[in-house]
Amino acid sequence: MSERTDDIRISRAQPLITPWILQEELPLPEPEAAAIARARRDIAAVLAGDDPRLLVIAGPCSVHDPAALLDYAARFQAICEPHGDALLPVLRVYFEKPRTVIGWKGLINDPDLDDSFRINKGLHLARRVLLDVAALGLPAASEFLDTTFGQYYADLVSFGAIGARTVESQVHRELASGLSMPVGFKNGTSGKIGVAIDAIRSASHSHWFPSLTKEGTPAVLQSSGNPHCHLILRGGSDTGPNYHPEAVQAAAEALAKQGLPASVIVDCSHGNSEKDPARQAQVVSSLCDQMEQGQGAIRGVMLESHLVGGNQPMAAPAALAYGQSITDACLSLEDTAPLLQQLAAAVRRSA
């Protein structure tokens, strides 16, 4: 009897729905498709400096309660409406969480928050949430962590992000080269921006890479390259925060040296807030001062914000406080509103 050598550490397998079937069950209506395409063009224009508005990507660290996210979305949209001349609001809709060791991996992987990993349910929920956000007329941003999940919902995303833990990954650079929307690459967890600039350059080129077709068939896809990739400054463990004037100017110069647009998005959370959500206000104040003093490289900001400030330990859904993060601590929407007004005023004064 021959010794087994294949799948010796795989204990179970479950069938996975195909992207084509999910899109057939939850189709994208034409009016929403047109709005998403328009939002992608607008975001690209803002990041290129062809649109004077500031891109503002705000929302919970991660989605664990779709109802609370949609509640936040409607309120966020209403707060931003008076600032349409100055801000381009985009809702943060993040379904996957990269973990340093272990932990909850996000709505797609574990929608019931109980380690049951009902991924087919999670994919349905993710697509349904994005459809509901699109119906509000609000563009959505999402991080692409698993390199195949995007086939299930990328048609509903207006801005994609590659995170600090995956910015050095060749497969994520290849993925970004084929995504249909503008993509932001965060600097690495250390804070160094060189890896993100390399990623932007790589993603602008054509690549061949393995993935899934919409029918769920393994295939090798060829991308045409993504000309709308940009740098996200999020601070880091070695460099500390990198939203200060010197860091923003250095990033702009490093981009220009590589022949890339000298424009950056600043993540006001993570390393730049040193994990304290209240410090996002300090980051915003600095960015407003820089814009008013003529720093044109700042084309967007990211804010972690939810209905209720702070965060809470993960528990059974019925035991959780409504509208509060179960991952990174967020700024409350009440405390976010003045920051949006401050950003809008700075954009108007810098025009």
From TrEMBL:
<protein>
    <recommendedName>
        <fullName>Phospho-2-dehydro-3-deoxyheptonate aldolase</fullName>
        <ecNumber>2.5.1.54</ecNumber>
    </recommendedName>
</protein>
<dbReference type="GO" id="GO:0009073">
    <property type="term" value="P:aromatic amino acid family biosynthetic process"/>
</dbReference>
<dbReference type="InterPro" id="IPR006219">
    <property type="entry name" value="DAHP_synth_1"/>
</dbReference>
<comment type="pathway">
    <text>Metabolic intermediate biosynthesis; chorismate biosynthesis; chorismate from D-erythrose 4-phosphate and phosphoenolpyruvate: step 1/7.</text>
</comment>
<dbReference type="GO" id="GO:0009423">
    <property type="term" value="P:chorismate biosynthetic process"/>
</dbReference>
<keyword id="KW-0028">Amino-acid biosynthesis</keyword>
<dbReference type="InterPro" id="IPR013785">
    <property type="entry name" value="Aldolase_TIM"/>
</dbReference>
<dbReference type="Pfam" id="PF00793">
    <property type="entry name" value="DAHP_synth_1"/>
</dbReference>
<dbReference type="GO" id="GO:0042802">
    <property type="term" value="F:identical protein binding"/>
</dbReference>
<dbReference type="InterPro" id="IPR006218">
    <property type="entry name" value="DAHP1/KDSA"/>
</dbReference>
<dbReference type="GO" id="GO:0003849">
    <property type="term" value="F:3-deoxy-7-phosphoheptulonate synthase activity"/>
</dbReference>
<keyword id="KW-0808">Transferase</keyword>
<keyword id="KW-0057">Aromatic amino acid biosynthesis</keyword>
<comment type="similarity">
    <text>Belongs to the class-I DAHP synthase family.</text>
</comment>
<dbReference type="GO" id="GO:0008652">
    <property type="term" value="P:amino acid biosynthetic process"/>
</dbReference>
<comment type="function">
    <text>Stereospecific condensation of phosphoenolpyruvate (PEP) and D-erythrose-4-phosphate (E4P) giving rise to 3-deoxy-D-arabino-heptulosonate-7-phosphate (DAHP).</text>
</comment>
<feature type="domain" description="DAHP synthetase I/KDSA">
    <location>
        <begin position="45"/>
        <end position="337"/>
    </location>
</feature>
<dbReference type="GO" id="GO:0005737">
    <property type="term" value="C:cytoplasm"/>
</dbReference>
